[in-house]
Amino acid sequence: MRSGTGSVAVVGGSIAGCAFATAAARAGAAEVVVLERTRGRLADRGVGLCVHDDRAVELRASGALPEGIAAHRLERRRWVVRDPEAGAAGRLIWEQPFPFHSYHWGQLWRGLREAVPDAVVYRQGETVTGVAGDGEVRLEGGGAERYDLVVGADGYRSVVRAAVCPESLPHYAGYVCWRGNLDAGLLPTGAVDPHPEAVTTVCFPGGTCVIYRIPGPDGPRVNWVLYAPPPRDGGLRYDDPTSFPPGGLTPELTEHLGALLEREFPPYWGRALATTDPRDTFVQPIYDLETARTTAGRLLLAGDAASVVRPHNTSGAAKALQDATAFADGWRRADSVEELLRGYEGVRGGAGRELVALARRLGRAQVERTPAWADMSRDEVEAWWQGQLAGVPGIGGQSMTR
Asked: Which stretches of 7-99 are DSSP H helices?
């Protein structure tokens, strides 16, 4: 569309929201407004995330991923099981290449926020209660504003998705993830090489735990994500995505986590994770969601608002930035909002559904229907992995130029 025309409201100011605001402003939108309900700094809980190296190259070239954001290089993924005869670190059952860089969520968000052009109006404390297909945005308190285009970058509880695809609701996967992070300096020393360039996946009946380093505000940290069914009396609700925030775990959840670490983990990793401060530990049920469409009227869905993907696929941040890249490209090529939306749906609608399908396969294989890990040869583990991919080249999302 012609530079200097069009008004865009971005609902949500997190990773996807900042990326879309930047994309719209750089593509030539006359007015870009971000409506973020949170006041002050967004809470990041200290969690980590990873971006595939190939995706990062594309995203830096497009300008969606700013230079200079701290990242930790990862090279391989080590799959291990508890085995008393193999020592404290457990027994390695398979190792695979893992060309990713890990990020601290808060540092990535701040890098994206700082890259948002000054012309963008970033309004915090603005809660959007509803939107309409004609571009109307309804605000808490009764006010309403109208834009040429409204981008839903408001996550898995998206108000914009409720208008685009009211029939699409989050689906509980049947298990949860415990998440935590700790100072890398607290890792046990002497008994084992902590492999700082590797992701370690601890495998046990009914679950897995992914452990890797991330940059932290005060030095390297160890980020971990443990997937397993919850205790029956853990106090979680499953009718809506929710979580216990850091420091808010019930005694039942805390006891269950401790029992898992003691019973199922190689001693080295069990001790390491047990040192995590309760203030840095939380738990959330795993959900997913796919939408039949990502646009309607003058509305567009981005990031987790368009598709909620189980974290096994390691694609969330890359997918949000790819969505923003496709949006910017479409804006420059289109002659109207309607043409822009048709092009975006054609490029990004199917991509989100593919990611949901892959992550469901990964979740079934790594949590819901785990194999007899300890009895498998390395060739058998590799074949099991390829079965999950089902022809997809790998995890971390796919190239936009495929």
From this structure: 15-27, 53-62
Q: Is 256 exposed, middle or buried (0-12, 13-18, 19+ CB in 10 A)?
A: buried
Cα–Cα distance list, 314 to 52, 60, 359 (Å): 8, 18, 9
DSSP letter string over 348-398?
Answer: IIHHHHHHHHHHHHHHIIIIIT---GGG--HHHHHHHHHHHHTT---SS--
Instruction: Decide: residue 359, CB within 10 A, 0-12 exposed, 13-18 middle, 19+ buried.
Output: buried
Q: pTM of this prediction?
A: 0.95
Going along the chain from its start, the domains and CATH numbers come out as 5-43+106-170+289-368 (3.50.50.60), 72-104+172-287 (3.30.9.60)
pLDDT in tens, 55-79: 999 999 999 999 999 999 999 999 9
Map residue 226 onto helix, strand or coil: strand
